[in-house]
Amino acid sequence: MLPAFFRPDIAVANHAESGETMKSFMTELRFAKVLESAKPGDWALIQFGHNDQKAQWPQTYAAAETTYRDYLRAWIAEFRRRGVEPVLVTSPERRMWAGEKIRPTLAEYAAAVKAVGAELRVPVIDLNAASIRFYEALGPTRAPLAFNDGGKDATHHDNYGAWMLARAVAAGIATAKLPLAEHLKPDLTAFDAGHPPDPATFRLAPSVAHDSTRPDGN
Fold this sequence. Notes:
This protein is mostly helical. The chain is built from six helices and five strands, in the order ααβαβββαβαα. Helix content is about 35%, strand content about 5%. α3 packs across α4 and α5 packs antiparallel against α6 (about 160-175).
């Protein structure tokens, strides 16, 4: 969903894969593939946590206080060595309620991201905090409208929820005044995750299909 907020002069490569952790992303050589294609001047947005915290998966588990931070440091070093600018993004929360408030399940990992960012002077976009503001603004009854499977899924988002989180990332890029912000669309309106658009009236225009067989390429 992130490309919706950028000008056409930039390419966004989504290397995410369901169920991955920082450790599995490396052992399966996905990280190697990313590094092979990375070029000086690129930007790398790094966001992990949901699966890294699952201690029941000992082969990929990374504790927030130790190995998770070490993996972040290693990724930052590898990107910087190639002239790529890393940006850390905290994990969006799960939709778990304690009354009218979200019960944090990823706070330790969000804190770890912020700590490593401060330590190594890497920009941090706090998507964790933005997601909490978003869910709480909708409330327990309407927040399921931002999630898959008619709201039965408390982790993965539908188009509305994905649009909101991507918009929060774009806002984070602008707020941090990163040079990457120069590539954001100039007509983006002010954004506050605590005042989301009404999911009942939200409409997302479909992407325009590219047909390379047409003479004009459109």
